[in-house]
Design goal:
Layout (H helix, E strand, L loop, with lengths): L1 E6 L9 H17 L9 H7 L4 H8 L5 H20 L9 H10 L2 E7 L3 H10 L8 E4 L8 H11 L2 E8 L2 H9 L3 E5 L6 H4 L4 E3 L12
Parallel strand pairs: 1-2, 1-4, 2-3, 4-5, 5-6
Amino acid sequence: MSIAVIFDMDGTLFQTNKILEISLHETFNRLRAMKLWEKETPVEKYREIMGVPLPVVWETLLPNHSNEVRLKTNDYFHEKLIENINSGNGALYPNVEEIFSYLKNNNYSIFIASNGLTEYLNAIVRYYNLDNWVTETFSIQQIQTQDKADLVKTILKKYNIEKGAVVGDRLSDIKAAKSNCLIAIGCNFDFAQQAELSQADVIINDLLEIKTNLSI
């Protein structure tokens, strides 16, 4: 029976903050040029909601705009994110490769489950060669419900997994773990919120701490 460790991507493995602000500014500069935005770029608002499905992101950031504008804005934003990834402007969190090697050497299966879009996730996986360790990367695009708990359930079913953990920085990761009877490991990283982390089974400040918290 396979034991899995399922990782969130943004704010857990990948330091999204390194490319988030510049990509968001580029996106809202475009909106300003199109006379569709006049205020400051809502960077802090995005930080607050980081980790929610993308439709919710743009409903929150562009509450008075049409769905067409939101969709086109999202497409442009993702183009900029991917450009910044491929330009080397992002970074993994410390010790990603070390914890992945440890897990793989100890017969854990490694997966990624993210609310990010497939093309964006693939850009990160390719740039940092994460396929050396990760069995498969799953995007919320692959399911109908936009619920990370269902995405994790898809992984468990496909790979016949009964035990494991979900590692992430937001409440959606914690809920995904608990609803699937997995250990919820909360990462106290950039986008984490203490009220959400308090619901995790374990809180870590460094990915290497996973080693001592996998009592499966």
